[in-house]
Amino acid sequence: MRLRRKPWVDAALEEYGDIVVIKEIPFGVPEQPGSSLETLNAHEHRKGQWHEVFGRKAPLYVELGTGKGQFISELAEKNPKINFIGIEAQQDVLYYAAQKVREKGLTNVRLLVFDINHVLDIFAPGEVDRLYINFCDPWPKVRHAKRRLTHVNFLNKYRILLHAGGEIFFKTDNRPLFEFSLEQFEACNLQVAKVTFDLHNSDYQGNVMTEYEKKFSGMGTPINRCEVKFP
Q: Is 137 among the catalytic positions?
């Protein structure tokens, strides 16, 4: 799937070639000489070999839907011994995430422009230790339920790419989506812990907020959160 981007993004991202990995063509298909992707792919994607991209072996945490990068940049700064990958379909949005990563001088973050529907194309079985899903699109219409990132179809994909005992940390301000997700976790026989329907008034410690979370929690919107383990 080719993802549209704004004209200014290509040039703007050239200075972030050590952080941003762009893949719009099918994986496994060689890039053509002279492609604009060559400049940006300073760290070429390697399914099953992401430790080589980071230059070290460390636990791999992946955020599905990185947005402007407030969450992943702060989390990576607090956890320098973890390798982080942020996936975002909107390339122009990811530009701002790259800025934050550069400003903090982080070497343990890579940002990937990609469609999450094809997540199994970019990670080998068992390669990922933890997934973060923060404030994903709730797709409120019933006929769109399969597009929700916590639908059983996605959970079955996550089961493949996650290491044994791997986890999902999930947050949303959408109560119907949260309740739907809990049902999906149960249907997949996953272990759910630390469930809260009002995160900021709970006893949970160490929460890192996204831009979206700061905005809506500041307006008094309750935040739902849970941790899910794949046995």
A: yes
User: Is there a single domain that holds both residue 2 and residue 97?
Assistant: yes
pLDDT tens-place string over residues 50-88? 999 999 999 999 999 999 999 999 999 999 999 999 999
Sequence ranges of the binding site for S-adenosyl-L-methionine? 63, 88, 115, 137
Q: Are 192 and 182 in contact (CB under 8 A)?
A: yes
- Which positions make up the binding site for substrate? 141, 173, 210-213
Residue ranges of the annotated binding site are: 63, 88, 115, 137, 141, 173, 210-213
Whether the per-residue pLDDT at 179 is higher than 50: the answer is yes
Is residue 213's pLDDT more than 80? yes
Domain-terminating residue out of 116, 145, 170: 116
CB burial of 96-135 (b: ≥16 within 10 Å; e: otherwise) equals ebbbbbeeeebebbbbbbbebeebeebbeeebbbbbbbbb
pLDDT at 210 over 90: yes
Give the domain CATH number at 170. 3.40.50.150
Question: According to the model, what pLDDT value does residue 219 have?
Answer: 94
Q: Which one is catalytic: 92, 129, 137, 198? A: 137
Range of the domain at 89: 1-116
Which of 64, 99, 116 is the last residue in one of the domains?
116
Specify whether 136 is located in the same domain as 162. Answer: yes
Strand partners, 162: 128
